[in-house]
Amino acid sequence: MEGLARAAQAADRKVVIVLDEVGAMPPAWATPFFSIIRSIYSSRQTLPFWARLTFVIAGVFNPANLIQDPTVSNFNVDHRVTLEDFTLQEVGQLLARLDLRVIWLQVSPDACIIGPTASPI
Question: Is 55 helix (H, G, I), strand (E, B) or coil?
Answer without folding.
Answer: strand
